[in-house]
Specification:
This protein has 3 helices and 5 strands; from the N terminus they run E-H-E-H-E-E-E-H. By secondary structure, it is of the alpha/beta class. The chain has a single domain, classed as 3-Layer(aba) Sandwich (Rossmann fold), CATH 3.40.50. The protein has a 5-stranded parallel sheet.
């Protein structure tokens, strides 16, 4: 069984391109045959925090428990504005959407939304 993707995002706002990118990433992963889920943080329990225009199922405790029971480690993707959770085990990736001068730890992995962001990272 393939590793699922857990994608963390702030609650959905139509005015935020970065949040839309996270939802679109979830949708594209699903369209390529993988399991992917979105988790809004901070968690808001109303419909305004989700967007049904994207294929982006909500990450739940039940889903996390299922993969933990099967001993399948997820691939966890955080935007650069989030602090990574130590409560979730898995392969953690920072998704750089905007912050040009972000200092990364040597043991962290990242992907970048654009070449401009990637080229402006401090080594």
């Amino acid at each position: 069984m393939k590793s699922p993707y857990y994608i963390f995002s702030p609650p959905y706002r139509e005015s935020s391109a970065g949040i839309k990118v996270m939802y679109k990433l979830c949708e594209e992963i699903i369209l390529h045959g993988y399991k992917a889920y979105i988790s809004n943080y901070p968690s808001i329990s109303n419909e305004l925090s989700l967007n049904t225009n994207f294929m982006a199922p909500t990450l739940t405790k039940k889903i996390i428990s299922y993969y933990n029971l099967k001993k399948i480690s997820p691939i966890i993707i955080y935007p650069e504005t989030f602090k990574k959770s130590d409560r979730l085990n898995g392969f953690k990736i920072n998704y750089l959407l905007n912050y040009r001068n972000l200092n990364l730890q040597k043991d962290e992995f990242f992907i970048s939304y654009s070449r401009v962001i990637f080229k402006n990272l401090k080594n």
